[in-house]
Amino acid sequence: MPSLAVNIDHIATLRQARQGTEPDPVTAAHMAELAGAQCIICHLREDRRHINDRDLALLRQTVQTRLNLEMAATDEMQRICLETMPDIICLVPEKREELTTEGGLDVASRIDEIRDFLAPIIAADIETSLFIDADPKQIEAAKATGSEYIEIHTGHYADAKGRAATKAELEKILTGIKQAQDIGLKVNLGHGLNYVNVMDFSQVPGINEYSIGHSIISRAAYVGIGQAVREMNELVRSFVS
Ligand code: PXP
């Protein structure tokens, strides 16, 4: 049965709108876990625009399920990762000017660099994942880095306009999932998934985890975080294994 990982960056974004202390992503993480989230995800960005170092330290102390640290492949993040010891990291591309992560990591052109970057993290017994597009050469490259997991970027599918374009993006993801599974990668999915479009994956076997933030936190504004997480959890846990 797939599991649900809840990204709490958006709670920190709201806090940073006033640069104060509320809402607190650490409290949100705890509530998400109480409602059934099996992993908490935060992205510590270079510019600290939402999650900051204090959040990460407290999340490491308080998260009882699993903590997934999304991060760029920089020396600073590698140091922080090894000091913090999350359960898993997900390497993402990062651009200062982007609103959110816009595309998958280009692993194919930097296989050796990423393999070397991951080596001390894997040696420290932290699991690793690479956020990549459903592109055959990126999937092959991800395998060559030694990463156990990939997270296939579902944002292009979520943003596609019209049935034909949506179907075409979905097909790419389904083909990518199969390719990754065939070469022994564990597959997570994430970005732009919501209570409606996630249903397109309900019959796709072998998905390890869904990484979802914006739609859950948006719904939480109406119904509370506990209910929002419970509703998404019920969906993904009803999907085929
Ligand atoms: N996965 C990755 C790698 C991301 O960068 C994000 C956005 O922070 C997500 C998943 C979650 O995306 P969303 O907030 O659209 O659900």
From TrEMBL:
Zinc is among the record's keywords: no
Protein residues bound to 3-amino-2-oxopropyl phosphate: 7, 18, 192, 213-214
Localization terms from the record: Cytoplasm
GO cellular component: cytosol
EC main group: transferase
Binding site for 1-deoxy-D-xylulose 5-phosphate: 9-10, 45, 50, 100
Site (Transition state stabilizer): 151
Pathway assignment: Cofactor biosynthesis; pyridoxine 5'-phosphate biosynthesis; pyridoxine 5'-phosphate from D-erythrose 4-phosphate: step 5/5
Molecular-function GO terms, alphabetical: pyridoxine 5'-phosphate synthase activity
Biological processes annotated in GO: pyridoxine biosynthetic process
Gene3D superfamilies: Aldolase class I
EC number: 2.6.99.2
Keyword set, alphabetical order: Cytoplasm, Pyridoxine biosynthesis, Transferase
Residues spanning the signal sequence: none
Keyword Transmembrane: no
A Pfam family that the UniProt record links to this protein: PdxJ
Catalytic activity: 3-amino-2-oxopropyl phosphate + 1-deoxy-D-xylulose 5-phosphate = pyridoxine 5'-phosphate + phosphate + 2 H2O + H(+)
Active site annotation, chain numbering: 43 (proton acceptor), 70 (proton acceptor), 191 (proton donor)
Record-stated family: Belongs to the PNP synthase family.
HAMAP family: PdxJ
Assembly and binders: Homooctamer; tetramer of dimers.
Protein name listed in UniProt: Pyridoxine 5'-phosphate synthase
Native species: Desulfovibrio ferrophilus
